[in-house]
User: Which sequence fits this backbone?
DNA sequence: TTCTTTTATGGGAGCACTCTAAAACTTATC
DNA sequence: GATAAGTTTTAGAGTGCTCCCATAAAAGAA
């Protein structure tokens, strides 16, 4: 059972190799009947063209890379699933690349580009320390998903799609303030200017300010740069918070995983969520609604974001359209972890 | 900034193209000094060979595909991370392919093989309805990870690595029996003979039998074929169980996600875990230990399994060594969700 | 009928590599 | 100094495909 090539198909059909190529690639200059005949033969013989040979010759490689910091982040793995579906529909193929925390994602993309002849790049998460200048080194169009970068110039060299992190974070913290909380801690990511953690922190500051609450910097806990948003890390940081002796009535963790770790830490100190401390997360991953107590969170429309990201990428690749910046609206889901039993018990 | 090719490097070094190729591929017939010189030039110019061109010519393509039913299954996404690391170390590249529930994974692999010139295939999960005969259609060596298939003939056409599902499941149910439970329900996957769900069900039967407990088929709940092990599904099936009116003192769900869904369902009926019903899971994903109550489960050594799987694959690819069947030992982690307060309150 | 235009097809160069076979250069042996 | 044997290098064929260009056939215009 030898590998079957385009030549074999051509011979079988009694036509030239180029005609078979034409039929497969929806080239206009071909007789519909010939095309039909060729396609039938292809199907009968389960012929699938060799991707390497195609990519070698083609200018447009039909390879899209997805670079992820943490494939096992539930938010990302869910999005990867959607992105692969979308990419598959358009007959492109997806290359997933896990970027280690110590790696520079743009460097990694640069390598992949040489190696795999990419025609498009999607970044899930990540920091882009050098920002625009760094991203501009990539030849293929780039879409940033769920990353910082609210600023967006005309003629940008990349697109971006995400929720408005400042606004969504504001929404959550403002909600906590209205619930009567005054001592609200936050568990966030690195202080890096280009990080989602920074934006969500800004939303936190803004909400406190508008509610006339002074910021207590001792209630602001940072993860280290490049660390995953893990439950373990949430647990540690919450424990530090609890052991600091500061008064805390609510905690906002910038991911659901961190929030769950925090819940567990509170529990392990013999305290109750939400009775003693309310906890809120961010993302809206499955576990948030199944956790006990179910977790108040900002639900990011992951499917929509992932779909839009691939759509934008295709627009840029195929129609050479301009890069764009799209914001999605998150949904504040109020659940058990912030139910205010103390004050509202009379309701 | 034009793309740099092997020709450019050859010219820069003042040597032939084939010599550069030799240097890069650790070919023995080359002067060490020449090689060093060439490697220096390559590094200085950030040259990275084009993968498509390589794969086109090479017999062994250095492409390994990972086919997954459900990339967003936490167990799998974690393993994917480890597998990519291992594959990367050996300078091979990984192609992740999400297999939809309605797709036949072997068909999908067959396509990928033609398309991407695979030199190895790893399956994560999946069913393999046609089993051996079907798998034998693949030319590249295959390793099944976390799949059924305890039987293993000499000269098998594939390797397999997993825990011994029957034994691990037995361990768990036997433990529940010893805790004094008599009415133990199970939430498992399809009845399909080649599924992990079936094996774990066999372990359940065995444990009940050895503990002289009659099986009540009304306590055995099946998911549909191809469905993900989701929390939502666990919730539904547990709700059905609770509404059946059968007496239930413990539930064993064959994945942690299902178990968490079950916990939530019990909670929503106004009952307590473990006081009213004990719950046990399987897998040992992160959330299991952070959930409230923390979840009793069988911890699969995911990292070790993933590493071993890639190792075996490399052995078969490179040394043409025989296929093997490797079992790992799981760890029964007893946690809050099965703590037996009732009987042992005097302890 | 002859010339131009349109439509359909085939030939073959080229993509960036690998690898075989042969060439060029060493060194050893008599 | 000639031959053999080994080492290092190179030219060039081959990989499966795409796409430009040439050609052939059909259609339309003169």
Assistant:
């Amino acid at each position: 059972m030898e590998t079957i090539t385009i030549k074999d198909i051509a011979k079988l059909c009694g036509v030239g190799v180029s005609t078979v190529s034409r039929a497969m690639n929806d080239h206009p200059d071909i007789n519909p009947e010939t095309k039909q005949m060729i396609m039938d033969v292809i199907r009968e013989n389960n012929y699938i063209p060799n991707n390497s040979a195609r990519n070698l010759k083609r200018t447009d490689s039909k390879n899209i890379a997805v670079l992820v910091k943490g494939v096992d982040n539930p938010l990302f793995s869910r999005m990867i699933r959607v992105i692969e579906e979308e990419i598959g529909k358009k007959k492109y193929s997806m290359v997933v690349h896990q970027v280690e925390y110590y790696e520079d994602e743009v460097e990694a993309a640069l390598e992949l580009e040489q190696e795999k002849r990419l025609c498009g790049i999607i970044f899930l998460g990540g920091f882009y320390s050098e920002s625009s200048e760094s991203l501009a080194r990539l030849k293929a169009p780039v879409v940033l998903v769920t990353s910082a970068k609210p600023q967006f110039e005309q003629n940008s060299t990349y697109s971006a799609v995400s929720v408005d992190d400042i606004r969504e974070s504001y929404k959550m913290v403002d909600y906590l303030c209205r619930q009567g909380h005054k001592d609200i801690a936050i568990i966030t990511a690195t202080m890096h200017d280009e990080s989602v953690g920074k934006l969500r922190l800004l939303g936190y500051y803004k909400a406190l300010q508008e509610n006339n609450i002074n910021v207590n910097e001792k209630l602001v806990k940072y993860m280290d740069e490049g660390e995953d948003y893990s439950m373990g890390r949430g647990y540690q940081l919450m424990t530090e918070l609890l052991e600091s002796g500061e008064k805390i009535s609510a905690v906002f963790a910038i991911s659901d995983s961190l929030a769950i770790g925090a819940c567990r830490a509170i529990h392990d100190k013999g305290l109750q969520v939400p009775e003693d401390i309310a906890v809120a997360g961010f993302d809206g991953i499955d576990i948030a609604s199944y956790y006990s107590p179910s977790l108040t969170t900002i639900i990011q429309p992951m499917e929509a974001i992932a779909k839009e990201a691939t759509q934008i990428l295709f627009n840029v690749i195929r129609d050479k359209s301009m890069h764009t910046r799209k914001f999605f609206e998150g949904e504040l889901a109020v659940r058990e972890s912030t139910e205010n039993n103390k004050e509202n018990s009379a309701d």
In short: Residues 267 and 273 of chain A are 7 Å apart (CA to CA). Confidence is low (pLDDT under 50) at residues 343-347 of chain A. Residues 3, 5-7, 17-18, 21-22, 25, 27, 49-50, 52-59 of chain A lie near DNA strand D (CB under 10 Å from a C1'). The longest helix of chain A spans residues 302-319.
